[in-house]
Write a structure and sequence with these properties.
By secondary structure, the protein is of the alpha+beta class. It has two helices and seven strands; from the N terminus they run E-E-H-E-E-E-E-E-H.
Length: 96
Amino acid sequence: MILRSRSCVAEVMSDLGAVRESGGYWNDEDDRVHLHLDVRDVAAAFVTTKAGHATGRAVRMVAFVDGTGEVLFKVMVPKERRDLITAFNALKDGTP
């Protein structure tokens, strides 16, 4: 996942229907799903480990939640990409 300004670009291995519901879209140029998720609406991002995925890769589920604890969006990312949450938290804190 690459976080740019107030939206996220994610390497997504999750439900594309949910992506569409969130206003996201698939970009053929960078072969990624773009999620329109305003960080001002997100209180926290939680990572939970999942055993695996159909690809055989270990993945983590990242859940973005609002101030009430309601899940705004979930996305699965490769387990080794712990830097995704670090980048998100830096963006939330206003760090460049």
